[in-house]
Amino acid sequence: MDKQDVLPRLTQVFRDVFGDDSIIISDATTSADIEDWDSIEHINLIGAVEDEFSVSFKMREVSGMKNVGEMIALICERGK
Amino acid sequence: MKELCFPLDGKYILRRRRGIRRELLADGSARIKKRIAVLGGSTTSDVISMLELFLLDAGIEPEFYESEYNKFYEDAVFGAPELDSFRPDIIYIHTTSRNLTLLPESPAETPEQIQQRLDDQFAVFREVWVKLMQRFQCPIIQNNFELPLCRRTGNYDGWGYAGHAAFISRLNVMLSDYARHNNGFYINDINYLSAACGLEKWHDPEAWFLYKYAMRTEVIPDLAFSVASIVKSVFGKNKKVIDLDLDNTLWGGVIGDDGQEGIEIGPETAVGQSFSEFQSYIKGYRSFGVLLAVCSKNDEENALLGLAHPSSVLKKEDFVSIKANWDPKDRNIAESAAELNLLPDSFVFIDDNPAECAIVSAQLPQVQTIELTSVGEAMYRLGRSGFFEVTSVSEDDLRRSEMYAANAKRAAQQRSFASYTDYLLSLEMRAEICGFEPVYVQRIAQLTNKSNQFNLTTKRCTEADIRSFEDDPGRICLCGSLTDKFGENGIVSVVIARCEGETAHIELWLMSCRVLKRDMELAMLDELVRQCRERDVRRIVGYYFRTAKNRMVSELYGSFGFTQDKLDDSGDSVWSLDITDYKNKNKVISVNEKENKNG
Questions:
Q1: Cα dist. B374→B180, B197, B244, B294 in Å?
Q2: What is the pLDDT of residues A17-72, one digit of tens each?
Q3: CB of B510 within 8 A of CB of B524?
């Protein structure tokens, strides 16, 4: 998959999970940029992303993801 | 909300939970507030967020206390100031097999050693329950334990002394036994849930290692839904009636076209067998106090012909209401509800025709509908939907259908009397009015939680509340049962008054709608006045707190001769009565089998 396909769908996932239709994400977005993105909400986010793109992240990837760019890279590599 | 009814799409609900929550809070519906303490042995964050959605959807606005991670034991046994001041209405202990610390380790252990492990493991949990009961006297919900997915020793794991699955199964038996012997203690059966979901789908070690969730996140909604069903039932939100279509719902075929010989019910065909099983399953609800009704587009004659089929498990007498005509079904359901003095939100409607289900849902959104695609599917959905979650079985439940049937007979009688008073006298009514005796406590609490219409203050009480009112010398507690020539109605009215010097404040006054217009409220008032006089009370103050459902009693105190002292914008009112010259009002019920002498 390429990034142009991933971005709009991923944006919608973020908007659903955080309940905020004004969210705009970029490669550099991190949990510090979104108010409700704490460790608990991270779990729901990962679950929703995995479901949206039929991808399953490895444990190391879940705990190691530093920003949205890394997430997009993983989705481009393995997502559907 | 459709998304929050079984079957659930767990991933969808988790993803959109904020939006769903916002929608629920904005729908303007009235909700009762409850404080729920969740004590966890693993992460409980989404357990709580899901529980909140299901409860909001059911008319309960929860406030939560959440224990620190895996501090269920410490909070319960040693106490936590924050939990104390929270004063929970109900406690949920979310533990799982991840919290078992004494699982068998080796086949070298003797049966006695394994038994010791079981006893010790059980004792840990029992201590939690006992301490919580002592401190809070509120209902407790406890998960039982799910079986492991991985079996080191294969089948042996399920039966051998050293098997973990065998150990867990034996522990679950001990939990069930405890629940049977302790009122107010309920098992949330995750052993069943995990099996129904499939252990492969339930277990997720990575969710444990990463987040300390004891199950796959996408099944958390199912878990929370199950807990919510128990909470709803405890607080009186169960449904009361199953209203059934006939053709292709209770039997195969169309009675009007196929005739009695032509419909499929009974052992001869596979289809007939499936409907027999369905009818038996439905009939079983009756003995738990659920009422059955028919709502069918048919001539009544044909409907009764179908029910008279020799293989029909359900007979005409099993139904408290049979509507077989060509009117719209939503209108028939509304009429049945009115006749039974119930609200449509107590109804579950089952029909094989999606169009009928859609019409009923649209016209009466408070009615839950089940579209019968197959008999097995409908049976499963009835059980999983939590409509009739059983948290207590009172004597009244066992006889409810008979009582409603007797009501129907009374109505038939009524038509042939010259005056209504003549009719009431002919019923030969006898009432017993007494304090909150221990045998009635469960029923009284149940009434306070499910009576909505004839309920002046809508004060909800637990069994512990009821016992404490009875023990308080400053309160007058009355519960009344009514019997007539057609049968017993059981406890039907509850009154609680708090005395302060020469004034008694009526904190709670409710009556079951099944005895409306029988003058039972007058008998209760007479007895209240009598007891007030014994305590030198001269003035009684009554309160009416308006809700969406109790309009019928807004003028009750006025009809008793009280004076209205206050009426505020919300519709709430305060009334008072000087009882110095009070004369008994009830003329048709004989109370406590002897003359009442203050008239």
A1: 34, 20, 14, 19
A2: 999 999 999 999 998 899 889 888 889 999 999 999 999 999 889 888 889 999 99
A3: no
Q: Which of A13, A19, A59 sits opposite B209 (nearest CB)?
A: A59
CB B329 within 8 A of CB B359: yes
Which candidate in B15, B69, B215 is best for mutational testing of the A interface (most A CBs within 10 A)? B15
Q: Which of residues 2-61 of A touch B (CB under 8 A)?
A: 13, 16-19, 39-40, 43-44, 47-48, 51, 59
DSSP 8-state symbol, B410: H
This prediction has a pTM of 0.74
Whether residue B15 and residue A19 make contact (CB cut-off 8 A), yes or no, is no
- Nearest CB to B206 within list A18, A19, A59: A59
Residue B85: inside a domain, yes or no?
yes
Could you read off the pLDDT of B329-367 as tens digits, one per residue? Answer: 999 999 999 988 899 999 999 999 998 999 999 999 999
Q: Is B403 among the domain residues? A: no
The enclosing domain of B288 has a CATH number of 3.40.50.1000
Dihedral Cα B150, B151, B154, B156, nearest 10 deg: -160
Confidence band of B394 (pLDDT split at 50, 70, 90): low
Here the CATH number for the domain that contains residue B496 is 3.40.630.30
Question: Does A47 contact B16 at a Cβ distance shorter than 8 Å?
Answer: no
Name the phi and psi angles at A28, rounded to 5. Answer: -85, -5
**CB–CB of A43 and B19 under 8 A?**
no
Q: Could you report the per-residue pLDDT of B33-57, keeping only the tens digit for each?
A: 999 999 999 999 999 999 999 999 9
3-state percent helix, strand, coil for chain A, nearest multiple of 5: 60, 0, 40
| Token pair recorded at residue B519 | 């003058």
Residue B20 belongs to domain with CATH number: 3.40.50.1110
Q: Which residue of B has its CA nearest to A42?
A: B211
CB contact under 8 A, B18 and A59: no
pLDDT tier, B597 (very low <50, low <70, confident <90, very high otherwise):
very low
Q: Is B433 helix (H, G, I), strand (E, B) or coil?
A: strand
* CB-CB under 8 Å, B22 with A19: yes
Same domain, yes or no: B249 and B342? yes
Query: Does residue B170 form part of some domain?
Result: yes
Q: Does the pLDDT of residue B392 top 90, yes or no?
A: no
Q: Which of the listed residues B342, B362, B384 is the one where a domain comes to its end?
A: B384
- Alpha-carbon distance A21 to B23, whole Å? 15
Which of B15, B19, B21 has the CB atom closest to A44's CB atom?
B15
Compute the average pLDDT of residues B59-70: 95
Least confident of B70-84, B414-428, B504-518, B520-534: B414-428
Which of A13, A17, A38 to mutate to test binding with chain B, by most B CBs within 10 Å of its CB? A17
Is there a single domain that holds both residue B181 and residue B316?
no
The reply to whether B391 falls in a domain is no
Tens of pLDDT, residues B181-225: 998 999 999 999 999 999 999 999 999 999 999 999 999 999 999
Structural domain range at position B250: 241-384
Q: What are phi and psi of B162, to 5 degrees?
A: -85, 5
- How far apart CA B146 and CA B199 sit, in angstroms, is 9
Domain termination residue (choose one: B384, B406, B429): B384
The domains located in chain A, with CATH, are 3-78 (1.10.1200.10)
